[in-house]
Write a structure and sequence with these properties.
This protein has one domain. Helix content is 31%, strand content 24%. The protein has four helices and nine strands.
Amino acid sequence: MTEPADQRPNSTNEAPPPVVMEPSSIRLISTLAIAGLVSGIAIVAIYEATLQTITENKARELREAVFKVLPGVSKMKKFQLEENGIRFRAEEGKDENTIYGGYNQQGEFVGYALPSAGPGFQDTIGILYGYIPESRKVVGMEILESRETPGLGDKIYKDLSFVSNFDNLSIDPEIVTIKKGMKSAANEVDAITGATISSKAVVRIINEGNERWINQLPTYGIPLPEEGSPE
């Protein structure tokens, strides 16, 4: 039986490959511009949609932090620090130069909750700490913002023994960090083993906050304002 002849076309009869037309540079630029515009609009829309929720969450977290750093407080009020003194803050907006006063159930002034921020090992560390003016002591510390190294630097808020350093801490002559286990004075803080830089950063940030706020604050606080003033 005769084998069938090769049916493949001779190379001289093959059809030429189709010509692929590359898009023009104008078309590429237009496509990229449209994609960028759509992405930008989407980002702005998401930001606007979530802004109120984010703002409310931050306000709630800050309020909770005030009660944590000032034991015995059941009410808080915002104070605005100005060149000519301190006043109760009534308006909304950014909390620049704003501190917080804490009051007990009887309406008696307990202490101030003071914000401070500064560089840590990785990034900015934001802190709120409680301060009693009559005794000149820090009575609590809460980390509001931190991107310190997980497992090490994040111990500044996860290590309860470190956090407890700030429960009854003298600010005079200033707060100092020492090697863990060597604490012997009322103004000393035990550093975290393996996270000394972050530990020292927290102490430095509080000392800087004291330099900023302490000398401008009324020693005995401010009487609780009438009901209806903003909290």
